[in-house]
Amino acid sequence: MCRLVAYAGPPVFLDAVLIEPKGSLVAQSLAAREARTIVNGDGCGTGWYGERPEPGLYRGILPAWSDANLASLCRQIRSGLFLAHVRAATSGEVSTANCHPFTLGRHLFMHNGQIEGYETLRREVDGLIADPFYRHRKGTSDSEAIFLAAMAAGADRNPVAAYAGALSAIARIAPAATLRFAAVHTDGERLYAFRWSSDRQPPSLYLRKRGQGLIVASEPCGDNASEWSAVPPQSVAIADRRGAVRVVPFGIGVGEAVAA
Fold this sequence. Notes:
Glutamine Phosphoribosylpyrophosphate, subunit 1, domain 1; 7-stranded antiparallel sheet; 7 helices; 23% helix
């Protein structure tokens, strides 16, 4: 399982969130505390918004703890909305194309979780991606398939409904498979942090206010864990670029009815 962090709020240097705190995302890449996989060394990446609508993106197959390019970028880039991810591969080989975040136009997406038995389901799941979006399929992971299936289902208009629809369609393909989905999607204006699973045992996901901003993370970092609150299972936290957040129910048969 992977680890992820997202930030929305007043612009900060990326290293203030991704590197400097005790137990930061980079530290979690070597020693995660709330994951089945302690080491997340199958690549890393970050996506950020600057002065243009489309985000910047950096991905690489080096472990985050030894990626000097990632550290240098984090020291130099300031942003008011960014995502970062360290990978422990559950499907798809170790390659840049399978590293998170994934991007399409102004959208960014990253995921911690899996489609159980994806290697035997890949052809059917990929069939959920409409042709105009399938040409953007660069890797072989289940995470990228979920992202593009949701984009094809209208994530540019209503991410909550689109991801609920995509997960519902995957569940119909493989009703016995366990689906786990802790993920973040953003269009550069709003940030959507999902925590859901078909067996109601979703991967961990937390929220914390940082000044006037908001941090979303797979596990708490910093000196005071009491400042963090868990995103409730089967829900999605929706935040704007000012860090204002609301939490609503999410899931198959629920997300479709929730306005974005």
